[in-house]
Design brief:
about 120 residues, mainly beta, seven-stranded mixed beta sheet, four-stranded antiparallel beta sheet
Length: about 120
Amino acid sequence: QVQLQESGPGLVKPSQTLSLTCTVSGGSITANYDYWFWIRQPPGKGLEWMGAITYSGSTYYSPSLKSRTSISRDTSKNQFTLQLNSVTPEDTAVYYCASARRFTIATRRDGYDYWGQGTQVTVSS
């Protein structure tokens, strides 16, 4: 059973960089054909697909966030990270990491095999 756990600051100031880490257990982020995702849910809104990193380290980003987003990984720690630059209050959301055995841009929970519990990030001065 794959388990994912998000970690990072719960409060970020406007214009700063939001950095979150997803720690994976019960599976390897380099396992063939496994894909790893960041998804967020702003208050009162639906899920928003942010980006993905593949088992081989390739990355994909939402066009609307691409200029501000970077996803990377540390294979020695079995972790992958999200960096979102120049945040504004509109970036306030619950941020989730998730995984699937296929590439997907689904915006519903059943589009993924495993989810982290989510972490609340508030952007405020």
